[in-house]
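Lecture notes, continued. The same structure-token format from the folding unit now serves as the input rather than the output. Read the line below as a description of shape only.
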């Protein structure tokens, strides 16, 4: 069962939490297509 299989996703990570590329790698391994990934600073 792959919830993200063949889905397009936008990733916004947090500088002090989980960075965008790490989330993107997980999403890609679950079968998603990452169309945008970024790491932002929320203060």
């Amino acid at each position: 069962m792959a919830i993200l299989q063949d889905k397009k996703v936008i990733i916004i990570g947090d500088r002090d939490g989980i960075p965008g590329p790490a989330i993107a790698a997980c999403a890609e391994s679950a079968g998603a297509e990452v169309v945008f990934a970024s790491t932002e600073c929320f203060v």
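Point for the exam: The chain is about 25% helix and 35% strand.
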